[in-house]
Amino acid sequence: MVPALHHGRLIVPMASPRASRKVGAACLALGLIANEWWIGTALSADGTIDAPLFRGLLAVFDLTLIALGIWGLSGRPYPATRTWGFAGITVLLCLLLMEFGLRGIRRLAGSSPPDVHLASRLSIYGGESWAHELFDELNADILRHRFVADPFRGWRMVEYEGKWTHANPEGVRATWAPPGRVNSTAAKLWIFGGSTTWGFGARDDQTLPSWVSRLAHKQGRPLQVTNYGTLAYTLMQEIAHLVQLLKQGERPDLVVFYDGVNDVYASYARGTPGSVIDVLGTLETRRELTPLQQVRTGFLRFAQDHSALYQSVTILAAKGSPRPPVSETGAGWDEAALLDLAHGIAEHHMECLHLVEQLARAYDFDFLSFWQPVTFTETTLHPEEQTDPRVSDEGLGLLHRQVRDRLQELAPDRLHDVSMALESRSDPVYLDYCHVSEDGNRLLAEIIWESIKDRDSLKNTP
Hints:
Blueprint: E1 4-6, E2 9-11, H1 17-33, H2 36-43, H3 52-73, E3 81-82, H4 84-109, H5 129-145, E4 147-150, E5 154-157, E6 160-161, E7 166-167, E8 188-193, H6 195-198, H7 208-218, E9 224-229, H8 235-247, E10 254-259, H9 261-270, H10 291-306, H11 308-318, H12 335-363, E11 366-371, H13 394-410, E12 415-417, H14 438-452
Parallel strand pairs: 8-9, 8-10, 10-11, 11-12
Antiparallel strand pairs: 1-2, 2-3, 4-5, 6-7
């Protein structure tokens, strides 16, 4: 049978009953296989598909295949005129075959999804298999599904139980503690910050707060250290979190803020000092999505998480292609405009620290703040530390240096500048332009510990 075009329609001669039964059997078999339980087992780590929208679309596709199968098994020929919709089903079946073929090749080769594990292949991880597992947890689950709206802070993280990453019901990440139970009279140290404090790219016991806890224990000064780092938080959001905890009756002895990256980037993106990063899309710039846009967005997120075909095509398309133009508001500003923004960021930071000072007096706790390092404040970078495209963002780099310089001019007593703390490193420590390796966390924790160990607020340890 030779198909032909007639008045823009694809015409195929009638198939014989025998051929129709063969096609019907194939469609029925695919219809029985293409259910949410089998597809969930194949594509999802936990064997389930959570999104109701995708379950509904899959059910429609499944019923369509079964209906076509029943039609063919009856011996009745399929319509001679095949619409583009029927051709679309054929294309979809081909895509499914390619998808499962790529997944099979990956499993045989023992390789990982290309978009999830790029950072885990850096030399700082030494080829350790746990690095792939860690980034599986980070990129495929935590970054996409572990945020919920918070009316006071904008958003917060939720409970998580992974192999290398754990968070309690309040979303607070686990921190290394000495064997046994820390004395309840030991000083309480709360560490606030963004993803660098939370420990992006590090296991629970290798985060910056965990290293501070370990260093204190080694010197016979066990502390109750809590990692209140939250991905994408700025200093103002951290203060809001602190206020919530104080309101609940919790009391720290010493509070440490470790900031810089998110405060600068959020203001750079929006062009306004004191901005926050729109993680959940719940700020004033959010637009209500139409049903069609919801379907498109949900499909893309599902494909990014689970589709080997989508991940492979995305990586291949990105290779050799120029970096897309940055969309941040401050990207097109000249040096003078960025300098004005930098002064605004620094002054906002100082106002926030002044607010913390008032809280510290009212609730009787001590605090210190640290300004963190980024690639933009380093004089030299290892080749591997330059792979993040953001490293070459000249506007963002200039703004970081301008803010740091302005803060140094203001010279607040409680703000410690550790932006050059990694300058003497001999090996790469940066995963991207701001996150550092587990060893980088150790180096920074040593500096922080030296700055806080003699504070009177920590001397009530047993």
